[in-house]
Amino acid sequence: MIITFSAGTTFPGVHRGSPPALLAARRSGACPFLPPPAPGEGRAGLGPAMNFSEPCRLSGLLGRISPDGRCLASCVQYRLIVRDVSTLQILQLYTCLDQIQYVEWSSDSLFILCAMYKRGIVQVWSLEQPDWHCKIDEGSAGLVASCWSPDGRHILNTTEFHLRITVWSLCTKSVSYIKYPKACQQGIAFTKDGRYMAVAERRDCKDFVSLFVCSDWQLLRHFDTETQDLFGIEWAPNGCVLAVWDTCLEYKILLYSLDGRLLSTYRAYEWSLGIKSIAWSPSSQFLAIGSYDEKVRILNHVTWKKIAEFEHPATVANTKTVVYKEVEKPSSVETERLSFPPTRALASSLFSTQSKYDISQVPVSFQYIKPVADRANPKMGIGMLAFSPDNCFLATKNDNIPNAVWIWDIQKLKLSVVLEQLCAIQSFQWDPRQPRLAVCTGNSKVYLWSPAGCVSVQVPMEGDFQIVSLCWHPSGDSMALLSKENFCMCYLEREEVK
């Protein structure tokens, strides 16, 4: 194992001011934006006048907006490119030793981690001091995962076969080890305030959880869990309760306090595939559990009992539920707008299929897919769920009905809206500042829903731009739209929340 620093051994100081290059980029002017979508897209009430940037190259969907919202890091093979979010002007260009497989910002947005798992190497770059960088080589131990600690000054590397977690300090070059980490989907979890870390462990054919203090990496608590094969752990946003859930072969979720006491155990049923996904509400008052039986169960934080059960049937018959159905519409280009040669945006609108939302009359039946019984990881059950930032809504996706997003009113504990898309849902994410949901379905459109209505917007891009992932800016004023080979920024005018 080797850790090396360039430009001397001094660790860059923490300065809150912006680097000169960053300030210069902000003053320098605008990036050429493509024209906004044509009017008449049904935006009434949503308020997002939208602009789109030119596309930029991308590899492996590795595009990340910095926590402070100033910069955007993107990877193209072995190159790391840092841009100004508002102009997309390149601020820094770094060259790594091999193709980048993972990238992550530090919590203070001063450093960027690039992991190259195939070579067992992590490289760290400084935004304020471009000449400084760090290389961590795990050697023969290999590398399967890497992440920042909440303070942005330590890196946690998980070695091959999950033999150990190595904690590297960038300030002192000291190294700490955590033995027996469990190989599971979500085995490390930090509290939101960054004070504590929970690690799932496997020793002597039993599951354990260890709690560490992040300031000095001292062990706070160590306790065994009543699980057959622990699958994941996640802290409540307030950092008071740790959720631990079992393998999908057994429906079981356990809730532990910070001192390791078992607060409650919840089991909805037995002898069938169990939990597939979970999500805490931002207030920590509710825990949503999605399972393979196509239902979401909501637990309350007082008694940890079920207070609601949300079903996802193939037919919606409740007249109080609004069903928005995406339908294709012919491209409408006014004759006076035609020119030769056509502009890029005009050519895109001429040869792309436009769509809009219609409100369907209930009852409405959705396309239902039965999973293949003899294959592992069946496409069934609740694969995605997320609470809105104000705790008022919960968005879910039932993998048996891949073209629909279900939006539940948490205050009334009832289904409020269903978005029925033409293509399968790839990703959705809430605006971090207001109840506005962005959805992508693997085509060149982005879809927005808010309590005021919903809209389908064609991204005016040349060529085939298939959006498979998206990421909101922390302010909610823009988002990054990612395809397999490119990305672009979508800029929205802020809608005031009344």
Please supply descriptive tags for the structure shown above:
mainly beta, six-stranded mixed sheet, 43 strands, WD40_repeat_dom_sf, 3% helix, Methylamine Dehydrogenase, Chain H
What's the topology here?
Elements: E1 2-5, H1 20-28, E2 33-34, E3 50-53, E4 56-57, E5 63-65, E6 71-76, E7 79-84, E8 90-95, E9 102-105, E10 111-116, E11 121-126, E12 133-137, E13 145-148, E14 154-158, E15 164-169, E16 175-179, E17 188-190, E18 196-203, E19 206-213, E20 218-224, E21 232-235, E22 241-245, E23 253-257, E24 262-266, E25 275-280, E26 286-291, E27 295-300, E28 306-311, E29 315-316, E30 322-329, H2 344-351, E31 354-360, E32 364-365, E33 382-387, E34 393-398, E35 404-409, E36 414-420, E37 427-430, E38 437-440, E39 445-450, E40 453-458, E41 469-472, E42 478-482, E43 486-492
Parallel strand pairs: 30-36
Antiparallel strand pairs: 1-12, 2-3, 3-43, 4-43, 5-6, 6-7, 7-8, 9-10, 10-11, 11-12, 13-14, 14-15, 15-16, 17-18, 18-19, 19-20, 21-22, 22-23, 23-24, 25-26, 26-27, 27-28, 29-32, 30-31, 33-34, 34-35, 35-36, 37-38, 38-39, 39-40, 41-42, 42-43
